[in-house]
Write a structure and sequence with these properties.
Mean pLDDT: 86
CATH class of the largest domain: Alpha Beta
Strand order of the largest sheet: 2-1-3-4-5
Radius of gyration: 18 Å
Shape: elongated
Order of helices and strands: EHEHEHEHEHEEEEHEHHEE
Helix content: 40-55%
CATH superfamily of the largest domain: Response regulator
Number of strands: 12
Distance between the termini: 36 Å
Number of domains: 2
């Protein structure tokens, strides 16, 4: 099982000072850290062996962070990915979440905040990998089946590959069909209590969940948007 404080973190950013600072800060926390100056170098290494968590800049030479995130998700839906983005990169930041990033952090940021985000992602990964009771807890909501022990989602008995974040959000909705969940409630049920994510982050993850299910069922409409409030899983889905 991946340890919260000994996992391998890959830092991919074209700013040498930022790479060095982040590597030093995370190293002091007990993490093993590898750094890469661009997406192409990182992808060459990831193709051989994936790290336990990736911190990824968006704008980089040779291969940008968005393309690298797409490729990583082609290898693993579970690997935690944290995007770094400048204040003026909102569109790319949202696109990164839709591609499959778990969280983002705007530049400039404090090392303390970065460390807190990394700890949250590692704790969630450790929970996913930990030994749970031998009985399998199943949530069934119409055509959807969720296995809470293996973090597997099925639509009409067909497996849908979800990230840990996506699975937890979907489970929060499917446990209470017909009940509206605010974005804040979804945050609290899908993230650690000490994590902060924006409404836009939740919206981006919901959009990606819908896209994945629509790939299996073009008529998928199980997740309703309640404008100004949040989301609801349809009782009749």
């Amino acid at each position: 099982m991946t340890s919260v404080t000994s996992g391998l973190v890959a830092v991919v950013d074209d700013e040498p000072h930022l790479r060095e600072t982040v590597a030093f800060a995370l190293g002091r926390e007990g993490y093993r850290v590898q750094t890469y100056a661009d997406g192409a170098r990182a992808w060459e290494a990831f193709s051989r062996e994936l790290p336990d968590l990736v911190i990824l800049d968006i704008l980089m030479p040779h291969m940008d962070g968005l393309e690298l995130c797409r490729r990583i998700r082609g290898l693993s839906e579970r690997l935690p990915i944290l995007f770094l983005s400048s204040r003026d990169e909102e569109f790319d930041r949202v696109l990164g979440l839709e591609i499959g990033a778990d969280d983002y952090l705007g530049k400039p940021f404090s090392m303390r905040e970065l460390s807190a985000r990394v700890k949250v992602l590692f704790r969630r990964l450790a929970h996913f990998e930990s030994d749970r009771p031998q009985h399998t807890e199943i949530v069934e909501a119409g055509r959807l089946t969720l296995d809470l022990r293996s973090y597997e989602a099925y639509w009409d008995a067909r497996l849908v590959d979800l990230t840990v974040t996506e699975f937890l959000l979907l489970a929060a909705l499917a446990r209470s069909p017909g009940h509206v969940k605010s974005r804040r409630q979804l945050m609290e049920q899908s993230y650690s209590h000490d994590a902060y994510v924006s409404d836009r982050t939740i919206d981006s993850h919901i959009k990606r969940i819908r896209r994945k299910f629509s790939g299996l069922d073009g008529g998928f409409d199980a997740i309703e948007t309640i404008y100004g409030v949040g989301y609801r899983y349809r009782r009749t889905a």
